Amino acid sequence: xxxxxxxxxxxxxxxxxxxxxxxxxxxxxxxxxxxxxxxxxxxxxxxxxxxxxxxxxxxxxxxxxxxxxxxxxxxxxxxxxxxxxxxxxxxxxxxxxxxxxxxxxxxxxxxxxxxxxxxxxxxxxxxxxxxxxxxxxxxxxxxxxxxxxxxxxxxxxxxxxxxxxxxxxxxxxxxxxxxxxxxxxxxxxxxxxxxxxxxxxxxxxxxxxxxxxxxxxxxxxxxxxxxxxxxxxxxxxxxxxxxxxxxxxxxxxxxxxxxxxxxxxxxxxxxxxxxxxxxxxxxxxxxxxxxxxxxxxxxxxxxxxxxxxxxxxxxxx
Length: 317
Prior knowledge:
The chain has 317 residues and is mostly helical. The chain is built from 14 helices and no strands. The radius of gyration is 23 Å and the shape is globular.
């Protein structure tokens, strides 16, 4: 929704910069608060760490009550921001892609607003109930974050190619998403069973099963979609998107920023730099850290300095 509301001239650069700034949050917090807990030798159990309680423990130990208040404020802002975006996204998908497309194509703006609010209320209640259930059964935040990759990772490459590749095949995208998810879950549980002898929350949350499941999910989803698209290219020309009608009969003046040449330039820019940063952060950085093995004092100092600099720049951007 933010991308739709933003100006075309700033969207592509803003999103790439936003991604780099966002990465500073988990990177800097994990480095500072995690190492702070170790340095202070705080009595944090593995179960408490899995529940994400290391940051508040460190902040409270360092700053007392103000530290816990500051962290709670930051957490509240993050939850409300992410939660509101999720609610609006689900509401928009249901309202426009289901209700207005199949149920009531001639819906007025008032009807769409009513349906949108009803979906937000219903989905918000479902999110709350699901959170309570997951907490009761003992699912930790770390387990949930990693398991999400196994379940939804298969859709990452198909969605990206649907936006960037004219030959992308719709059936291939659906087949890749479903098959990648199924195979990812199978491999995830199989590795947990083979390596640890049983399948439960503890074994499925360990590194090897999660890594195997995530890799199979995202790679199979992308491979299946690419094969289907090459065998039967759809050659989509985006004309159906240009014919989408607005809810109200209000038209805006032609914007110079919407010229196709400028949009193509923006696409090439974001693809180029997106790939560059992905390779650097996901491939080169981890690969260069492998030979280091156990960090020396110099390498650790460099790591901490990068975290501090990245977090400082991100907080002031």
